[in-house]
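Q: My labmate handed me this sequence with no annotations at all. I'd like to see what the chain might look like in three dimensions before we decide whether it's worth expressing. Could you predict it?
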Amino acid sequence: MGMVLFACLLLLIIFPTCGYAAINTTSPLSIGQTLSSPSGFYELGFFSPNNTRNQYVGIWFKKIVPRVVVWVANRDTAVTSSAASLTISINGSLILREGKQEVIWSTGEGFTSKKCHAELLDTGNFVVIDDVSGEKLWQSFENLGNTMLPQSSLMYDIPNGKKRVLTTWKSNSDPSPGEFSLEITPQIPTQGLIRRGSVPYWRCGPWAKTRFSGISGIDASYVSPFSVVQDIGAGTGTFSYSTLRNYNLSYVKLTPDGHMKILWDDGKTWMLHLSLPDNPCDLYGRCGPNGLCVRSNPPKCECVKGFVPKSDEEWRKGNWTSGCVRRTLLSCQADSSLKTKGKDTDIFYRMTDVKTPDLHQFASFLNAEQCYQGCLGNCSCTAFAYISGIGCLVWNGELVDTVQFLTSGETLFIRLASSELAGSSRRKVIVGTTVSLSIFVILVVAAFLLRRYRAKQNDARKKGFEPQDVSGVNFFEMHTIRTATNNFSSSNKLGQGGFGPVYKGKLVDGKEIAVKRLASSSGQGTEEFMNEITLISKLQHRNLVRLLGYCIEGEEKLLIYEFMVNKSLDIFIFDSSLKFELDWPKRFNIIQGIARGLLYLHRDSRLRVIHRDLKVSNILLDEKMNPKISDFGLARMFQGTQYQDNTRRVVGTLGYMSPEYAWAGLFSEKSDIYSFGVLVLMLEIIIGKEISSFSYGKDSKNLLSYAWDSWSETGGVNLLDEDHAGSDSVNPVEAGRCVHIGLLCVQHQAINRPNIKQVMSMLTSTADLPKPTQPMLRKTSLLGS
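A: Here is what I predict for the chain of 785 residues:
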């Protein structure tokens, strides 16, 4: 018996961090001890974010590395000593003490139970339970932080003045409440709303039975993980989140920069399901009252039909906050005696595929016709929409935060004076004549194009248009690709590029593929398409994505690539959780891999190729995190001694473009070098922040300015992503050298930039580097970035 007791005591000494089953009045939880959920999904204990000295009580996923914290008790006040404990008082209050006396955090007074305990459930909910009645006296799901787990919820309760929201951490090292919050509004129907302080920052549009109607790309067929319940009479509403895709582990997180992200665990890594906002147009009221933000490339602000800028001067400067005003007063507003005649004098302009404005009101009309008549008969009604899953919504006054989607939006009817569309008789004659002439010209041009198209089709048929023999590239039948992608299902869509969507597919032999479906607007004919295939087929390198095949059927043109398990680099770099998987050695390997791929394109392949669109989203990662350059839709091939070319059509991504290309259309190897410098430097790879959204200090320095100042002061070591800066894996010499090389690559004059062979030598040696000059900084608006 004595030996058994000795063995138990020895185990307690060796394993002081063993998991508790519950916390009660006689068994507190101390630093070094943890509390586990019954099935081991979640764990509660003391932790230090990013290896700081501050200690917090939190909940995290137990068996996942790096640790993802989903709830924090003492967000506002950290434990700074080595002795602290979480206990429960006789009245059922949880109390966190530092040392023996000082109370750091508690759940508050008011409970009456004298026998209770606290436990962690398999849902991730930390609860205090009355041992007699079994009633939950307190629970973490009713005291959320920055994360929602399945079965937790946001809510509002108007009669009792209650509201449950998510609030961001101040930073990844500081869990105290940040400036962003996520809530559901008491509107009917409700909306999800992110606030920055008290000001609206983003909204998801009104709830439409199974989805939020204002999120681009989500229509009625979307299988939503969300549910909303509103009790209009009681003045309450809840928004909850269910397990995603049948995976046990998933969560919704509000990040310090104001993004709502949904992630799920596939057993190997966290997969990003959704990240919002995802476009500059998503920012609340970007184009001002009665303005329309068009999600084109690049996004732009316009006035809604029938409206003009309130201040032409401000709009020319790119300041759209003043919005737009009516060009012509509504007939019923211009003359009060006409208020009852509004049905005859005002008309409605139909807009499709839009995110409807904010400040809607629900009207209990039974169908779209009643909704139309109801708005038309009310002079103060400025717009209406009849939405499936909602019914009739109307707007009075200004239209705020209206967005034009490319697809999958709602239909909005805007009230205008009839003259806005009809005009005078003279105008009708002019317009009619102009339209007639235009139609005639269009018919002539269409006939010419049709004849030309048929001639090409006949030529193709004469040739048999058999699949062309391209070395190393297979021809796929369309039915094979449709089967592999589930008929191009939206659930298989990986992303949207400038030349069309990309889908994941699986062939009958189990091989996974990525299918790039060229949009009709890409402008490529069959001959140009086959030339691109021939070009790409000749590019074979371990740091380039491999083309497996192609498919042509009618107007459909598809490129089939190898599937990259870890998708693109931007998914890891800009995600507050996934970026921890890229430590410095992996990041440096990615930098070198991109350089090797460029060396092949510029110098070692049979063709000399300029990529022209090198950016973080075009760097794909295989299962071992090796980089592969993708998307050669804008690539150009040079022959012989040719070293540069120019174009009137400047395409690519601002922020990554070299000055000579952005301003004059000149491109060469050195324009790719500039983009590489952005990738390495300002990047994204070292700083971990997007070039379009970076702002530092009271002077709001952009990335180039901040990088130059950092290199001038410290050699650039402090540019490394702040979450990795203190890691043992970081090599300060390598990091500083990369900053130096990046600055050399973004020199204003192309002649002053190194070529890719010199870049490789700089990356792989310790030789002294030439001193860069300060980059010339050009300002670009967010819409242009």
